[in-house]
Structures are given as C-alpha cells and as structure tokens.
Amino acid sequence: MHHLRRPQGRIAYDLYGAGNTGPLVVCVPGMFDHRHSFRFVGAGLAEAGYRVAAMDLRGHGDSDATFDDHTSRAAANDAIALIEELDGQDAVIVGNSMGAGAAAIAAKERPDLVAGIALLGPFLRPGTLGPLMRVGMRLLLMRPWGPRALVSFYDRLHTGRTPEGHQRQLELIREMLRPADRYRAVHDTVYADNETVADAEGMRARAVVIMGERDSDWKDPRAEAEWVASVVDGSVLMVPECGHYAHAQRPDVVVPALETLLGEVVAGA
Which sign does the torsion angle of CA 197, 200, 205, 210 carry? Predict the structure, then answer.
C-alpha cells in the first residue's frame, strides 16, 4: 500500500506492475467501496505490461478521514494528482459508479494527462429520489444500523456472478465502516452534491462505457449506458451476469476490453 499526500490528508493506493513500462492506469472506485474491488483489473493489466494504481476515495479504505470535500470533482482532482505523482503520460482512468463521474471530470480538466477513460456502471448525472425515499435513506444510514445496511446493499448490487474473494471484500468494507470518523466520511460521500457531466467539451480521451446487464441502479441499464456513451463519444459494452461491479464480477470480459482501450491509446499517442 502507498499513500498520495494531498492538502487535507492522504489517499491510499495499491500499485500493480510498478516496473512495467506501459501507460499508467488509475482505478477509481465508487462510494462505500474499497480499492480491493479492482484486484482483478490490477493483476490482469499488470500481467499485460501496464502500471495500475488502484486508489481509495477520501475517507474510504485506508485513505485519511480528514477531508471536507467528498464530491466526484474532489475524487477527480485526487486522480489527477496521482497521475502526476506517478509521472503518468497519456494515462487511462478506470472509474466505477461515482468514480466514473470523477474519471470524466478529470478527462475534461486535464486532456494533456488523460488519454482514455473506461466508465463502469457510471453515474454522470445524480440520481433522483422522491421526498419519502430521501427520508428513508437518511433513516437507513443512521447509526448503529447504518454500516450493516450499507454492507448489505453493497452485497445486493452484485446481481449475477459472485466474484472470487467476495467475502474478503465485504469484510474490508465492514472494517472501513466501523470507525465513526470513517463512516462519517462515507456518509458525506453518499450525500455529496455531485455535478452532472453532460458534454465532452475539452476532452480528448478515448472512451468505453461498461455496464452490467443486471445493474439494478437503473431501470434500463442499456439506455443509461447509451446516454453516457453519447456524452463522452464512446462505445458501449454490456456485460452479462453482472450487476454494478462488472470489473469484479466478470474480469474475464472487462480486462480484455480495457486492454483494447489501452491499445487504442498507445496507437493514438
């Protein structure tokens, strides 16, 4: 495990294939997730010759819980700082859920650094909840039952195949949610005021949108994937037997797709 120093604390990350010479890949997970969910992507791409840095969000995993900004833009700024820290050029950002929004923001902000983005189960626009649902969510996430509710919800989002090592992943998230300050950071991330990414102005990154066919975050996962692809001018890959975490549930499909994207980035550099 490594740490990236930021103005208000440190961001934890794992580095796969540190001695490799291929382009840098930065993986950004979604809210109430742990960087360990990218274990298959990290190992697979490192074996193919790439460097892969899988980071935690602020207050998540082993990152510090000292930050006061937990938005997707803050995560984008952390990803950009990590690319700079690791001397990445023509980097690719792989983002899941809220992390996909961060990837798109980073690609718009720093086209000189970000040459490719892979958006997995992407949230590029905030979801809409009615008043009763908002109240219900706040009650659900209150202590002492909130951490257990989040772990259960996370587990249910893995509709379809169960990833290898899934119980270990759940335990990491349970451990992450136990300390009060860390749970507060995760809670603030859930309720952060994230912006909508509605255009690709300034973006030069090649893009692929990867969506689980059974992702329960949307009534029509394919329609959402196609909307996101229209925003970032990318292609769509629908992954069978998957919910919200295709990179963990079907690395046999996702890793080759990422290798294809990286090949296009290298060819276009």
Answer: positive
Q: Report the 10 Å Cβ neighbour count for 220.
A: 10
Average pLDDT over residues 147-156: 92
Domain locations along the chain = 2-268
Q: Which fold has domain 2-268?
A: Rossmann fold (3.40.50)
Residue 82: φ, ψ to 5° = -70, -40
CA distance 65 to 255: 31
Which tokens hold the place of 134?
């908002």
Using one digit for the tens of pLDDT, what is the confidence trace for 197-254?
A: 999 999 999 999 999 999 999 999 999 999 999 999 999 999 999 999 999 999 999 9
For residue 139, the model assigns a pLDDT of: 73
Residue 116: which pLDDT band, with cuts at 50, 70 and 90?
very high
Structure tokens at 81: 């700082």
Query: Sign of torsion, CA 1 87 117 10?
Result: positive
